[in-house]
TrEMBL record:
<dbReference type="InterPro" id="IPR019076">
    <property type="entry name" value="Spore_lipoprot_YhcN/YlaJ-like"/>
</dbReference>
<dbReference type="Pfam" id="PF09580">
    <property type="entry name" value="Spore_YhcN_YlaJ"/>
</dbReference>
<protein>
    <recommendedName>
        <fullName>Sporulation protein</fullName>
    </recommendedName>
</protein>
Amino acid sequence: MMLPLFVCMTLLIGCTEKEKFIVYGSPQNEAELESVLKEEKSVEKSTVIQYDDKMLVAVQIKPLKKWNTTKIEKKLQKKFDEKYPSKEVFVSADYKIFYEANKIKKDQLEDNKLSKKITELQKLAKEET
C-alpha cells in the first residue's frame, strides 16, 4: 500500500526542476546569454543581472567540478568579454555573490539602486573571507 505512494512521490519530486538560468535586467539578449552558459557543462545554475553597460554573472559550479572553480570562472569571463566587449562583465562562482544576485532578482530593485548594488557585489567578491 505504501510502496506505490512512495514511488509516486519520488517521481513527482524528481520532476520538479527549478530555474537554472535566470536573467534579470534588460532581457534583450536572454537566449544568447543562456546558450553561452549552457555550453559550459560545469555550470549548474546561474543568475545574470544586466544594467546599462554592467553585467554580473553569478554561477554555481557542479559539485565534482568545484576543484576547477577559478579556471571555470576565467574561462567564462573570457567568453563574456569576447561576446560583449562594450559591457563591463563580472563573473563569479562565489556562493555569496550568487545568493545576493538572486536576492536582487527577488527584491526587483529600481534602476538607480541596481547599478550601485552591482558595484557593491563586485567589491564583495574581492574581499577575502
